[in-house]
Amino acid sequence: MPGFELGALGWSTELADKLEQGLEPGRVVAAHRGAFDVATAHGNVRARLPGRMLHDGVDVAVGDWVGVAGAIIQAVLPRRSAIVRKAAGLTSESQTLAANVDVAFVVSSLGPDLEPRRIERYLVTIWESGATPEIVLTKADRMDDPSALVAAVEAVAVGVPIHVVSALTGQGCDALRARIADGTTAVLLGSSGVGKSTLVNRFVGHEQMAVKETRADDDEGRHTTSHRELILLPGGGVVIDTPGLRELQLWDGGAGAVEAAFGDIEELTLQCRFANCSHETETEPDCAVQAALRSGALSRERHQSWLKLQRELRAIAMRTDARLRREEKRKWQLRVRDARSRTRHRG
Ligand SMILES: Nc1nc2c(ncn2[C@@H]2O[C@H](COP(=O)(O)OP(=O)(O)OP(=O)(O)O)[C@@H](O)[C@H]2O)c(=O)[nH]1
Ligand SMILES: [Mg+2]
Ligand SMILES: [Zn+2]
Fold first, then answer.
1. Which atom of ligand 1 is found nearest the CA of 191?
2. Which of 86, 109, 108, 89 is CA-nearest to residue 97?
3. pLDDT tens, residue by residue, 20-59
4. 82, 96 in Cβ contact below 8 A?
5. CB-based contacts of 242: which residues, under 8 Å, 6+ apart?
């Protein structure tokens, strides 16, 4: 079986430094029930998690970098970003849709079903994930003049690039492909039937992913893509295709997404003396985040990207139901704190 050039999949010396000696590096390219396809320099390996990691609930997702030995995943390397949603139902558990993503494309098709509000909610989740969002409006060939719809999307996505494409005519496809540079990872997110897999096939140059047979005009219906898959594009760059999502599932992931991407800092903020602590300047009294910066436990760079995220979230939240979100988050933080102090008192 031919191996992979790990650099093309995004492997770096930074990652190599974090890998335990003796383990073979690989990237999770597909997740199945209980098993993962891992791309390594020696080809694809069907690997499993050891019982110890299953028991600890270690989260492994498509896009993760792992260390394997034999057919066992022995280590999951720290993520630089993670697109997370709440698992279905009333649980507070989260599900990682894709890990180590640089750019997340929010894909919608141009037509009467296009909902700018839905796009806005995707953007919130993506900003929280650590990836950078871009918007893709597909099936441009179905409209004489999409400019009004594009303007409506622009209004909810200030500063976010918008690509208007047609996989049928090729309009905008090369420009979109160029956004997935060598060594970077993109993910396609959006409802079923908007044309995510069709775009992947166009980039790959053949029918890599199955697409919906009939060119039905409505975007609803059965999912064609059934599992998440990471694909190495000819000419460089990596793209993760995903099955269609229903909006609310992703939106509900809000608090969980921050927790996944910046859990360490979020946890620190619970220890700050004041609830309205900005965590931003050295003059904040008894700020646990600043203390971690001073001790070196938290890097300046990570602190900066977290602050940037908070600002972006704030800007978007101002137009959406800001207060509700903040209250939800606060409630969630208090729940975490209560749960922690309960375990502490018990133990
Ligand atoms: N007219 C037109 N049809 C398109 C375009 N792109 C995709 N389609 C059609 O839209 C349908 C759905 O495309 P898919 O690529 O399967 O959609 P998907 O987003 O991958 O859907 P799921 O896998 O279910 O999430 C197919 O019948 C495609 O042929 C386009 O640019 N123009
Ligand atoms: Mg698909
Ligand atoms: Zn603080």
1. 25
2. 86
3. 999 999 999 999 878 999 999 999 999 999 998 888 888 8
4. yes
5. 97, 98, 187, 188, 189, 196, 225, 228
**What would the pLDDT profile of 48-104 be if each residue is shown by its tens digit?**
999 988 888 888 999 999 999 989 999 999 998 888 876 555 444 567 889 999 999
pLDDT given at position 318: 54
In the numeric block, the tokens 């383990």 are attached to 23
8 A C-beta contact, residue 83 and residue 101? yes
| Nearest ligand to the CA atom of 140 | 1
Is 48 near ligand 1, meaning CB less than 6 Å away? no
In this prediction, residue 134 has a pLDDT band, given cuts at 50, 70 and 90, of: very high
For ligand 3, a single-atom ion, the residues with CB < 5 A are 272, 277, 279, 287, 289
- Ligand 1 pocket residue status of 141, Cβ below 6 Å: yes
Instruction: Determine whether the shortest distance from the Cβ of 166 to ligand 1 is under 6 A.
Output: yes
Distance CA(183)–CA(175), nearest Å, equals 17
CA dihedral 15, 196, 193, 65 (to 10 degrees): -10
Mutate to test the pocket of ligand 1, among 169, 215, 229, 249 (most ligand atoms within 8 A of CB): 215
d(CA 234, CA 86): 34
* Whether residue 172 has its Cβ less than 6 Å from ligand 1: no
Q: Is the CB of 290 under 6 A from ligand 1?
A: no
**Domains in the chain, CATH or no CATH each:** 6-78 (2.40.50.140), 83-90+96-246 (3.40.50.300), 253-346 (no CATH)
Q: Whose CA is nearest to atom 3 of ligand 1?
A: 139
Tell me the three state secondary structure of residue 15: helix
Ligand nearest to the CA of 270: 3
Q: Which of 73, 13, 16, 80 is nearest to 39 (CA)?
A: 73
Ligand 1 centre to CA of 186 (Å) is 18
Checking if the pLDDT of 18 tops 80, the result is yes
